[in-house]
Amino acid sequence: MRPKIYLFGDSITEESFSDGGWGASLANHFARTADVVLRGYSGYNTRWAMKVMEKVFPAEMNVGGGRSPLAVTVFYGANDACLPDRSSAFQHVPIDEYKQNLHAIKRWPSTHVILITPPPIDEVARLLRHSFDENPSNLPERTNEAAGNYAKACVAVAGECRVPVVDLWTRMQQFPYWGKTYLRDGLHLTLGGNKIVFEEVIGKLHEVGLSLETLPADLPFINTIDHMNPLNAFKE
């Protein structure tokens, strides 16, 4: 059986199999070596993620219950970082609990877990997404400062757990006009934003030894099959 790479996260993960999405690009990249499994849940925070772990990873997370995933990306924090006194307060998770939840999600000894921080927030763009009826305070439900605090917490957890981390919040802001270039609504990714996530995740997987060069291909490639006796390629 092919090994599996799970993508676990919120809407930015759920949308990752869309045209040009970072998850779709991963599936294409590992087309003959690993199955990329989408487990993204729009609007979820780490508190809710902890409640659904048994359903998301039924056999793989139980000792002796099946083959553990080859790798898991954990991409949460954008909803945890919603401010507790604004329109999306029900999604807010305090930063200390967020860190504890990230620690708890990393539970497979043989699986490479890659944490991904929340992206930066374009606050002006977020305001344009909501009508006055939805947001009478006329204040963004997220701020870039709050997202940055959760990103730093995610990086800290990665250090404590000794796992790779993609610091998306910092990475995107290294470029000019990042808000419009990488975010389509101040939060979710454009094609350019998806490309950055894909490249960063591929880089982290390579760092832990997971690449096309190290993973065996699924069945023989056509250029290795003897055209004079092709069935020889499929002998045990």
Automatic annotation (TrEMBL):
Domain of life: Eukaryota
PANTHER family, sorted: ISOAMYL ACETATE-HYDROLYZING ESTERASE 1, ISOAMYL ACETATE-HYDROLYZING ESTERASE 1 HOMOLOG
Coiled coil: none
CDD domains: Isoamyl_acetate_hydrolase_like
One Pfam family recorded for the sequence: Lipase_GDSL
Protein's UniProt name: Lipase, GDSL
GO MF: hydrolase activity, acting on ester bonds
Entry's family note: Belongs to the 'GDSL' lipolytic enzyme family.
Keywords carried by this UniProt record: Hydrolase
InterPro entries, A to Z: GDSL (IPR001087), Iah1-like (IPR045136), SGNH_hydro_sf (IPR036514)
